[in-house]
């Protein structure tokens, strides 16, 4: 193998990992999940899961990546044997399905850039406007455009693309989000919104834990880019002098900060406009923010800048997803990078077309890949690292940490038992939820549309 590339600076690695983590998951998916799952009850469970499951599983992926210096599939072949080498299949399938609809939603953000530039945000027409943006040929076209951008960047190598875009993107997202949250703070109804978002009621959790828990776990995995090998890949370029635990902490904190801020923006705006936060589903931020920008001086331009930033955040996440699947085709099937990327991009585009035409397919794909496959990938990898290669894991986690003491063992046992058990329960709950979606909402859709 030729001399392997590695991150030029620690910031380069952290920003790239943050670039993958921060995306539509934070700004689009998080607020509507909070809305659907009843506000603060969801938020608190979500935060607990980020700390208790997300953080240890980031380290599971980091350990595998840095130790093997390989892509996810190659990594498992190197240190695993037999059925363990097949975990890569779960990663690859998840990546394929996720990118096919991720690109559709990114297409909506491009549409909202155009609407802003034309000065057409409107408080009254916001829901109808979303209906138009999220269906029909325009949505298919913008989905194609976004996928084309992903193909081009990944086909021509990602080093410069990723490093460069994240350097601007991450600070821009933070500044714009904080600015919008400050604006939202001034709105009438903000107090009520904060109460909804920030005051958890134990009774809501007790009554709805079977839906809140799996939804929050799926969101935690999605937002941290876990369960499909992205963090394995990024850590494979990481030097042994780095303290992976503190890097993982920074990544999880920044990612959570941006999701949390997205809620501070969306809910006051929704409450001010009298829109019920649980009612809009995937339309939530598009409807609420378009309505808010309509009221602001220079709102069209501001909105265009905001949605463009979201699109760039989506791009840096999308690239990381594509890279995992492309690396698999290159390594396992000897296909070269350009045809592999182009063929995959076209296939993902086609699979995504139904999602561009009808929202129900966004839920169909999202539920399967995000709520089941990502968590299954995380579960299998945790069992593998915790039980099959524990010595290697302990050795690797300690590198770059001074006086690691018994912390490595504590982490290992935490992954081995509580994390694995929690993930078994969470995958099962998510599978049940998905089953009720398939036999409920989706079956209904099929019977009225076919
Ligand atoms: N973390 C990304 C987001 O929040 O938008 C989405 C994502 C990227 C999920 C990479 C999974 C992944 F492997």
As residue ranges, the low-confidence spans are none
- How many separate structural domains? 1
CATH class: Mainly Alpha
E-strand count: 0
Distance between the termini: 53 Å
Average pLDDT taken over every residue: 90
> What is bound: which ligands?
4-fluoro-L-phenylalanine
C-alpha geometry = globular
Say what the CATH topology is.
Answer: Amino acid/polyamine transporter I
Encode the helix/strand succession as letters. HHHHHHHHHHHHHHHHHH
What would you give as the CATH superfamily? Amino acid/polyamine transporter I
Q: Mind telling me which CATH architecture this is? A: Up-down Bundle
Number of helices: 18
Class from helix and strand fractions: mainly alpha
Could you tell me the radius of gyration in angstroms? 21 Å
Q: What's the arrangement of secondary structure elements?
A:
Layout: H1 10-21, H2 24-36, H3 40-68, H4 72-79, H5 87-117, H6 126-133, H7 137-155, H8 159-185, H9 190-198, H10 202-223, H11 230-235, H12 244-273, H13 284-295, H14 299-333, H15 337-357, H16 359-388, H17 390-398, H18 407-449
Helix pairs in contact: 1-8, 1-12, 1-14, 2-10, 2-12, 3-4, 3-9, 3-10, 3-12, 3-16, 3-17, 3-18, 5-7, 5-14, 5-15, 5-16, 6-13, 7-14, 7-15, 8-12, 8-14, 9-12, 10-16, 10-18, 12-13, 13-14, 14-15, 15-16, 16-18
The chain binds 4-fluoro-L-phenylalanine (PFF).
Quick description:
Helix content is 81%, strand content 0%. With 450 residues, the protein is mainly α.
What does this protein look like?
By secondary structure, this protein is mainly alpha-helical. It has a single domain, classed as Amino acid/polyamine transporter I (Up-down Bundle), CATH 1.20.1740. The chain is 81% helix and 0% strand. It has 18 helices and no strands. α12 packs across α13. The mean pLDDT is 90. Bound molecules: 4-fluoro-L-phenylalanine.
């Amino acid at each position: 193998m030729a001399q392997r590339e590695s991150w030029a600076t620690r910031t380069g690695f952290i920003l790239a990992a943050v670039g993958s983590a921060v995306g539509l998951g934070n700004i689009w998916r998080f607020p509507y999940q909070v809305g659907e799952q009843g506000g603060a009850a969801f938020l608190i469970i979500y935060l607990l899961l980020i700390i208790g499951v997300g953080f240890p599983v980031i380290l599971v992926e980091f350990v595998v990546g840095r130790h093997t210096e390989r892509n996810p599939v190659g990594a498992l072949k190197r240190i695993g044997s037999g059925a363990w080498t097949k975990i890569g299949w779960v990663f690859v399938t998840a990546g394929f399905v996720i990118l096919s609809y991720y690109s559709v939603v990114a297409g909506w953000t491009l549409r909202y850039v155009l609407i802003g530039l034309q000065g057409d945000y409107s408080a009254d027409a916001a829901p109808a406007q979303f209906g138009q943006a999220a269906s029909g040929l325009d949505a298919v076209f913008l989905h194609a455009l976004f996928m084309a951008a992903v193909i081009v960047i990944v086909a021509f190598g990602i080093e410069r693309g990723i490093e460069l875009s994240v350097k601007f993107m991450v600070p821009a997202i933070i500044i714009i989000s904080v600015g919008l949250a400050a604006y939202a703070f001034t709105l009438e109804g903000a107090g009520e919104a904060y109460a909804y978002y920030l005051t958890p009621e134990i009774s809501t959790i007790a009554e709805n834990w079977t839906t809140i828990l799996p939804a929050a776990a799926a969101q935690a995995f999605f937002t941290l880019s876990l369960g499909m090998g992205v963090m394995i890949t990024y850590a494979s370029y990481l030097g042994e002098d780095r303290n992976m635990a503190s890097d993982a902490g920074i990544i999880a904190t920044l990612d959570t900060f941006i999701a949390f801020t997205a809620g501070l923006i969306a809910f006051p705006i929704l409450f001010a406009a009298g829109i019920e936060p649980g009612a809009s589903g995937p339309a939530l931020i598009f409807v609420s923010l378009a309505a808010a920008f309509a009221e602001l001086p220079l709102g069209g331009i501001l909105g265009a800048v905001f949605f463009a930033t979201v699109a760039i955040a989506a791009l840096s996440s999308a690239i990381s997803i594509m890279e995992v699947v492309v690396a698999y085709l290159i390594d396992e099937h000897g296909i070269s990078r350009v045809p592999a990327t182009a063929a995959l991009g076209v296939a993902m585009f086609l699979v995504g077309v139904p999602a561009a035409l009808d929202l129900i397919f966004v839920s169909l794909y999202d539920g399967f890949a995000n709520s089941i496959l990502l968590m299954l990938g995380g579960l299998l990898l945790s069992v593998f690292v915790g039980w099959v290669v524990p010595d290697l894991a302990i050795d690797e986690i300690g590198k770059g940490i001074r006086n690691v003491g018994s912390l490595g063992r504590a982490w290992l046992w935490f992954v081995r038992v509580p994390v694995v058990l929690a993930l078994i329960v969470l995958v099962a709950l998510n599978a049940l939820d998905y089953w009720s979606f398939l036999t409920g909402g989706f079956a209904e859709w099929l019977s009225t549309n076919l």
